[in-house]
What does this fold into?
Amino acid sequence: MSDIYIETPRLLLRQWQESDAEPFIKLNADPAVMEYFESIRSRSESLAQINRISTSIAQRGFGFFAIERKDSGEFIGFTGLTMAPFESWFTPCIEIGWRLSKEHWGHGFATEAAAACLKFGFEKLEAKKIYSFTSIYNKRSEQVMIRLCMRREGEFDHPNVQKGHLLVRHVLYSAVP
It folds into this structure.
């Protein structure tokens, strides 16, 4: 278990394993999970994302960690910290994000995992501020931000979403130590 980075009462947040690939591909192909993204992800896109995330964790010591339920050993999604991959008035910045399989929504897993990641970011990475953002329509994720006691800073047009697209407008939240 030397690859576990963060542990919570119910979850392990860890480096990605080969066994995570198939459930991650399924997660990224679920239209309900990907509702607030421009499209679902293909198998090859999902595998490439795992590679990018794993490399980030190995190089930086942080990234989007795989989430494993302690009671079942099941992969249920990811959460963690990354450098926001675009330019905006608040970047460069550390972003916290999460994505869980639909059957694990509504159990507090996203909030539990993200709270542990915020603590990790402030204590281990000595971050001064951590941001989170999502489409203005993604009320479930926005509620996680609120439960994490993050502060709403406003809205912005996400530069990686096509202008005029329904999902271009995002809410922006932040947390400080």
